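Budget justification note: compute hours in this period were largely spent on complex prediction jobs such as the one shown. Inputs:
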Amino acid sequence: MAEEMVLAFDGGRSHRLLVIPALFDEAGKMRRQTVEVMHRLNLSGIDSFLPDLPGCNESRQPLDKQSLAGWRNSAQAAADEFGATCVLTLRAGALLAPAQLPGWKYAPLTGPKALRALMMAQSISAKEAGRASEEDQGLDSLAAAGRIDGVRLAGWHIGAELFSGLEQAVALPDSQQAIIDQDDIGGSGLWMRAEPGENPEQADALAAIIAIGLIGR
Amino acid sequence: MIIEPEQDAIVGKDETDGSTPVADQTALPPARVEIDAMLRAILRDVLALDQDQVDGFTHDTGLFGHLPELDSMAVASLFTEMEDRLDIIIEDDDVDGEMLETYGGLLTFAETRALES
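Corresponding output:
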């Protein structure tokens, strides 16, 4: 397996949190906020690790060669490598959570919903660019293309294997990971915003849920 | 994908029942008030606006092309949130200039779809 970058707060402490990022455009929008949460957890005495998925962020792997199974293996490999004791997933990152790790899923998203948002963005930008009449830019056509050859959606080149994997993907309804809804955090989710951003109050709230869960304060 | 012309007519007729085309919530039946409030909340969340700002939206408030925050990616976020929270499906053919041009246009669309589902 190729090496990937990881952003880590590693103090060799007993609580070691694997953080699985949001996917695609939401990864960019959520990254600063994710690191804000990790910084707060560090101050609470909790180690955390945010690995790059193959084909994402700083990874040198091509995105269109990735698969859901491959990403799940990568998440598991990262959990093993860093001796993770628990996991936090963001948005569609929930689909990759190692099943045996206890932890939290923040505002989880199913694979079909993650794909639909990208397909809508692709379809709308095609219309904006005056290509409204092109039938291959409709939602059904994009999905059909995605399954067979892979498809470029809003700048993300998703291969057929990943597309098909995501179409089937729902987070396992296990009891190991508790769901954190946006209502538990307050305010509106930063993944919806046009630009990447951060929100200190929301970071406080998310970090507090995890810190209280792990160390009771 | 299929839009029944009658559906648009029903909503259009409904709107003329009110004495004023602006967002006078007291004049709307409960279901419409609810959709109106949810749509304002979605726009607030997606465009990172204040509640006061979205409360000030009238039927004529310009959206696409008027709000710099509303680019194609934000439109996609807007639609996916609308699908989720209003429990509707948005198809390719729904997306036209009129639907996104004003708040009133978007609200009419949301009401039409909510009636269908």
